Amino acid sequence: MAFRRPSLPFLLAAFFFLVTFGEEPNTNASLFVLSCVYIVYMGEKQHEDPAVVTASHHRLLSAHLGSTEEAVRSMVYSYRHAFSGFAARLTMSQAKQLQESPEVVSVRRSRMHRVHTTRSWDFLGLTKSNPPSVLLKDANYGDGVIVGVVDTGNDVGRSSISGIWPESRSFLDEGYGPVPSKWKGTCQTGQAFGPSNCTRKIIGARWYVNGVDKTDLVGEYLSARDFNGHGTHTASTAAGNLVNGVSFGGRLGAGTARGGAPRARLAVYKACWGSGRCPEAAVLKAIDDAVHDGVDVLSLSLGGDGYPSATIRAVARGINVVFAGGNNGPAPQTIENELPWVITVAATTIDRSFATNITLGNKLKLVGQSIYIGSQTDLTGLVYGGRNSENHQCHQPACAVLLSLNCGFNLA
C-alpha cells in the first residue's frame, strides 16, 4: 500500500501543534535555546548593602533553577539600588514558577523600546545674551549639577554638530573645577573609550550589553562611545558647552550651539544599541546605577511606559527624571512615558518660520516654509520629498525647502 506525501498545509499545521502544545524540554541547554529575558520585580529593598541584595536574588533564582551556578549563569542584571529585582534568562514555565513566589511582586518579559528623535533655549527664555536669563543666571548655568543621560552613549570624539574629529567642543572640560564630591559613579572603559575620555565634564560612563541582540552589536562600539549619534545629540542638547561659529557645511544655520545647562556635568549610560533599540532590562539597570552614582537629573529620550518601578524611587531620592513624550501623533492618546512623577516633554514648535517661493517644473510658483532662504547653494539633497508628486520636477535651488502641511495646495 503506497503512502501519499503529506501536503504543505498538513506539515505546517503539525509544526504549529507541536510548538503550541509540545512539552518544554527540561534540560540545561533549553535555558538558552527556549529562554527569553524576564524582569522580576521584588519591590522595596530589604537590605542597604548591594551585595546582600544581589545574593538574595541568586538564592531565589537558584531555588527555581536547581543550583547557584545555573542562577548566576541565567542572571542578566541585578537591580539593587533604586529597588529590588533582577533580569534573567528564563523559560516560560520558570517565569511562571517565579511569579508564584511570595517574594515576587511581578514577572514580565523585557520589552524593546526605541530612542526618540538651535534656537529652542532662546524660545524658552533661557538666553545667554546680555542681559542673560534670570533663571539661567540664578542656576549658575547648571554648574554643580550632574545630568545622567540614558541613551546610545556619547561620542566624545565627534563634534556634536558636524560629525568631525577630534574631540567635541561641546564636551571639553576647560574651566571646570574638580568633579563634585557627591559623585559615586565610575568610568567604565571599553572599545575606543579609555580613562582619558572621562573628564571634568563627562565625569562617568557605563554601558550595558547583557541581553542585547547580536544584530544590534554589528559595527557597534563595545563601550560607552556612541555609534548611533542619538546619545551625543541628546547629551549636548541637555548640557553641551557653548560652541560659537557652528553651522551646517559652513553655510546653513550659523550660530552658537549650547545645551540648556551648559555648565552641568554629564554621566553617560549606554543602554541603547545599533539603530537605537533599547532593551527594557538594560534601561532599568542604567536607572538603577544612576541612582547609586548620585545624578541630579536623569534624561531619557526614548520610548516606554516611564519605567515606574525604577523612576518612582529615583524621584523619591530627589532626582528629576525627564522623558521624551514620543514622536507619534497628532492623533490623541499617542504620548509615551505618561507618569505623574516624571517630567514628560512633548514635541512642540518654535516661534519663527521662513517664507520661501519655490517654482515647480510647470512654472507654478508656490509659497512654503523653508529652513533656508539665502542665495543659491550646492548643498542639496537633504529634503525628503516622498509626499510630492512625481509629475512635477523641480530644477531650482529654492526647491530644497519644506512646504507647510497646511498650505492647501494639491500637487497631484
UniProtKB/TrEMBL annotation:
Record flagged with keyword Hydrolase: yes
Keyword annotations from UniProtKB, A to Z: Hydrolase, Protease, Serine protease, Signal
Name of the featured protein: Uncharacterized protein
Domain Inhibitor I9: 37-116
Domain of life, source organism: Eukaryota
Gene3D superfamilies given in the database record: Peptidase S8 propeptide/proteinase inhibitor I9, Peptidase S8/S53 domain
Alphabetized GO MF terms: serine-type endopeptidase activity
GO biological process, one term: proteolysis
Any Pfam family hit: Peptidase_S8
SUPFAM superfamilies per UniProt: Subtilisin-like (SSF52743)
Family of the protein in this entry: Belongs to the peptidase S8 family.
Signal listed as a keyword: yes
Signal sequence interval, chain numbering: 1-22
Domain Peptidase S8/S53 as annotated: residue spans: 142-349
